[in-house]
Amino acid sequence: MKTPSTPPLILSICLAGIASGTAGTPAEPPVAVIKTFELETATLEDVQEAMRLGELTSVELTLLYMNRIAAYDKTTGPIGLNTVPVLNPNAIAEAAKADKLRREGVELGPLQGVPFTAKGNYSFKGLATTDGLTLWADLIAPYTSHVIEALQEKGAVFLGHNNLDTFQASTSSTTSQTFGLARNAYNRDFVTGGSSGGSGSSVGANLTFFALGGETGGSVRSPSERAGIVGYKTSQSLISVRGLAPLAWDRDVVGPMTRYAVDNAKVMEAASKPDPANIWSSVTVVDGRPRPTGFADQATASTLVGKKFGVLTNSVGTVDTGIPGAIKTVFAEAKATLEAAGATVVEITAPPELDITFTGRRRTLPVDVVTPPTRKLYSPATTDTTGNMVAGSRAYPFKTFLESMVTLPGDTADQIHDKVVARISPVTQLPQVYRTAIADKTTFGPEHPDVAEHFQATKYAILDYELFLQENGVDAMIFPTVTNKTSSGLTLPPLTRSLVNSFALPAVTVPMGSVDMGSGSIEPTTMQFVGRFLQDDKLLALAAAFERASHKRMVSPQVPPLDGENFEITMDDYVDANDPYAPPLLVVSKQGVAKKTAGVKRLEVGGQIKAKADVSSIRAWINGQSVPVAIQGKKWKGSVAFEEIQPYVIPGSKTVELSILAEDSEGNTNATVVPIRVPKSLTLAPK
């Protein structure tokens, strides 16, 4: 069974007791292998090992994250990061299903039983897909987005929705109309980056094991920089965007966000499941290019030996003082790490055709093509701003998304149209010209000739970029993800939006060190790898190799471990995967009791153990804070001094959140999260 860990023995392994005996006396058997599990530093491999050995269940892991959210994420708490404002009410049931399958011998892979969150523009059946808009706070999804379903099929547990910037509008910060400001994982007074700031910060603060963000123009890479995590902006078309509220469909992508690159590769294995109904399914960008596969195997075995990386001239910035200078220094150290691991780093100069404003004839365009294709979805064609997308095309994904949200059986085409118009008309974040296109039925999708020409133009932009890499013998390009940042914003290197978003390329951020933001606030900073179109597997492998060589991920001191997150794993407590799955059952009283012992006000909670239930241990938390529990026959009781949990109780609140985890002698677990009424004698007066 689990035992609390001593002060961190991160991944230490103790092999003892192999001393020889006296003559004729057999040697003592080896003492069990002991390994300290720490939630903050755990990889997917660590989690799956702990689950295989019976030291951790998905129910328990899910509850640990719910406790962290209760302690560190509530807007009224002492930290109040506000990154996961909506929880999936069925999360514990999903976790119990993953545990049951494991006990029955069904292994679904490295994501089985692992909790994750998704940006608030991802549909999930029964929850509102707000996109950060108060107008859509009641837009309840009738289905779950393809990518979430793909992850759930592999056993991952959907924990809830992340906060996002209203209408995905900002790359600097995350403030939604529906949920307010999301806060930085390392300093709550700093911005998170956007628009996937809730996703990034929740991973950086260890409030979820991984998260899904989304990017149209920097919205995964920006928050991943501020959270010091591995954020992956995939090649366009690789992961289905069906079920996501859109922004600009030719640039919208799903972006997995993790603490480690190899874990990101394992998420990518599941997330990139093909989807015939994806908006991209009828679009060809580069003919004959296969979809990437084998993400995890390549990331695990990758090396930097013999690899060559290009740094664009002036992409690092010219300032040597302050935060820009500090970022330059860290980036120089990262380059030295690459070279020490066997790679070559060279400086290269970008030709004009790597900028989206280029108007000349592309080098890779066949000579027999007299009239070059142009980017027909943007006006002018050389713009890099999503707002300049032509009305009929930009409006199309909003129309199709809302149709999928509001259509009921038996609706006529006119009824569906009227519902969509009613939903989109008041959304002023989408300019009137696009809303008018929907109302006037002038939208057009991937089948339109202008779309085909647009992606022909994109193809030659990609091929020009790849020719440039080939001529320089470069495997990938590297940049500091930002050249400068302050408490309220950041600066991206030149060309990175053009190359990554308009050229449909994959890019990934990896922690490379930290910088002093002033007043003693240390924030991580990351390096960005940019690869070839639809060679995402190879790019992630390079990122993983750098991560193994550098080990620069930084743990946030703002959100330290809570009770139960760190424990020792012992081989002695292995639980047979085929043992019957029969989780213990508890009854919880929803009324707390006020007690006063030795002048100390205490809050008591309790309940009963259901008849025939085998319970070996019960653990409890109130708003994420541990509560000692005693078992007395078929009853259980927990008691805590109210002053210990008072900082985590909303002033004037009549309830607190009680989490209960029960475990039986076979290692089966069950959990309950319920609101408990606080006696008036303990309730704090509103401030």
Automatic annotation (TrEMBL):
Coiled coil: none annotated. InterPro entries: Amidase_CS, Amidase_dom, AS_sf. Residues 60-540 form the Amidase domain. It comes from the Bacteria. Pfam families: Amidase. This is Amidase. It comes from Luteolibacter soli. The lineage of its organism: Bacteria, Pseudomonadati, Verrucomicrobiota, Verrucomicrobiia, Verrucomicrobiales.
